[in-house]
Amino acid sequence: MIEPERYAQLLEELLNGIDAGEFQNTDSLPAWYTYAHLSALLRFAGQVDGGKELYERIYDQTVAYGEQCIRNKRKNGEKMKVAFLVISAAEWTTDELYQLMDQNDQIEPYIAVCPLNDRDAEDALLSYQKTYRFFEEKGYCVKKTYAEETGTVITWEQNGGVPDLIVHLTPWNESLLPHYHIDQLPACCLNCYIPYGFYTANNKDGRYVVQFVYNKEFVNLNWRIYADSRRTLKGYQTYGLLHGKNVRCFGYCKMDYFYKKNVYSEDEIRRLWKIPEGMDPAARKKVIIAPHHSIGDDEVVSFSTFHKNLYFWIYLAKKYADQIHFVLKPHPNLRTKSIRYGLFRSYDAYDAYIREWEALANTRFVDQEEYLDLFETSDGMIMDSASFLAEYMYVDKPLLFLTKEEQAFSELGEMMLEGYAKAPGEDYEAIDQFLQNVILGGQDQWKEKRAEIRNKELDYQKETGCGAGENIYWDIVRGFGFKTS
What is the per-residue DSSP string for 99-127? Predict the structure, then answer.
């Protein structure tokens, strides 16, 4: 984290460079210039007359220089190095984009796995190892950013040099090792951001979507933001300092999965849902329980009801042992937050709870893993996790959203809510009735409304003709003149 005094120094360096004529053209920028200087200018832009206009001019020069650097590499016959910066397998959204780049012999993509810097050492290491192993086992070109043996950072330079383009999957700089913050990068490196979830959450006073989504410092430093929907694009255009000039709307990459015909064998479904060998998977209903991590009252957004119902899930699993199989799919941060806010006294206590859950014959626990196959093979979901409101629309299954007073939603989120059942997180009777009437009884009264919402707000392939990942790929390669065959 850069100290305020350092930002003042960076701003002074930048302004002196501008006065000295070092920002006259985009063919070359000063060797000392980094995104930290641009970040410093952004922080002061709203405090002086003409500050926003100056920021936009220097931003334009910065991205134009980065674009020129990549075009120069293409002209020289060099490959464009693209790093996908990842902190969790559960947030992996860009498989099709990665695969298309990997098939282009002018591009060298790889995945850089970064540990979560805002967790304690034990939990950060566990998550880091799980995420690295996920990509390694699937055969991706994956590189570490942290050496567990020595406890030291592996730098961009040690991994083959600063990439030409970094695909960011999280906007939370504070979650990354400081070396991997966007403001540490030189101007020759372009950055794009593909969100790991739909922007459906807000807070009560409405500041969240402005301060932490549409006008967040991070998004104003990126060359491209790839928005998930027209409503999200409108938010950037309305509230962002750059008014959406760096935003493209092609849909949500992760949802490309549901536009394909995915076929699951009975053995695959048994594995996903812990259904015994020899039993017809269709004989049991399958329900996901997905608690959010935002337990504490001091959270920026507050959605989680887990502190009100964590033991009720075990009760339900036992009650419906012969009818329903459950998967507990918490937000990856729930383990840490459960300890921080005193829900469990230690990680051992949290892990004991998970072991108690997994010991049942009809339950599974899924953490740092993909989950789209679970979505598609499920019969319903119970949750309080904001982004899943939109993601689950793509499988057309019933969902019970657990409410609490502190929750608030973006414009997109409000629309998604109309397609689902709702009940307070501590209303055990209503939760049980959802299982009885909707999951087992088939009384899905929200089905037509979901179809209406999905067709109006989320069916991006109807508009673009292809997947979001493919459209993003073409936007990148055609923009830099790389071959497209």
Answer: HHHHT-TTEEEEEEE---TTS-HHHHHHH
